[in-house]
Structures are given as structure tokens and as C-alpha cells.
């Protein structure tokens, strides 16, 4: 396998990871920021107040976007498996 092809596959893998994990990470980041601002504004420093909303949002997004995530990862893996014969040549 040539180095260019290996780097291309690595690039595709990293972009797939970003696209699949991005929505969940972005949503938890936004919820965490909103909760932190509310905690500062109300001076309510309850530790569970920051974790529970992020956990609920992450779980809801994984349930909603799970089929799309699995389909995207499966398509990528299928493409890699189908490319194996061309990698040896």
C-alpha cells in the first residue's frame, strides 16, 4: 500500500469520526455552557445540575441519530472491506 493511499484512508476515517461524533459533542457542549451560565447567574453550585442535562441530551441524540451513525460507520467499513483486493495490487 502506498503512503498516499494510507493517508487518504486515515483522512477519511478522521472525517467520519468528526461527522459522527460531532452532533453529540456539540450539543453537550452547548448544554454545558448554558447550564454553567445559569449556575453563575443564580449562584447555584449543585454538581448534578451540570451532569444530568448533558447526560439526557447525549442519550436523546444517540437514540435519535443512532441509526444514521451506524449506517455511516457501516458504509465506511464496507468500503474498506471492498477495497482490500485493490490494496494488495
Name the poorly predicted regions.
none
Order of helices and strands: HH
User: What count of domains describes the coordinates?
Assistant: 1
> What overall geometry do the principal axes of the alpha carbons give?
elongated
Give me the secondary-structure category: mainly alpha
Helix content: over 70%
Say how many strands there are. 0
Radius of gyration: 19 Å
Strand content: under 5%
Tally the helices. Answer: 2
Largest sheet data: none
Chain-averaged pLDDT: 91
Distance between the termini: 8 Å
General description of the model:
By secondary structure, the chain is an all-alpha fold. It has one domain (3-88). It contains 2 helices and no strands. The chain is elongated and about 65 Å long. The model has no long low-confidence stretch (mean pLDDT 91).
Please outline what is shown here.
By secondary structure, the chain is mostly helical. The chain contains two helices and no strands.
Search tags:
89 residues; mainly alpha; 91% helix; 0% strand
Provide the fold topology:
Elements: H1 3-42, H2 48-88
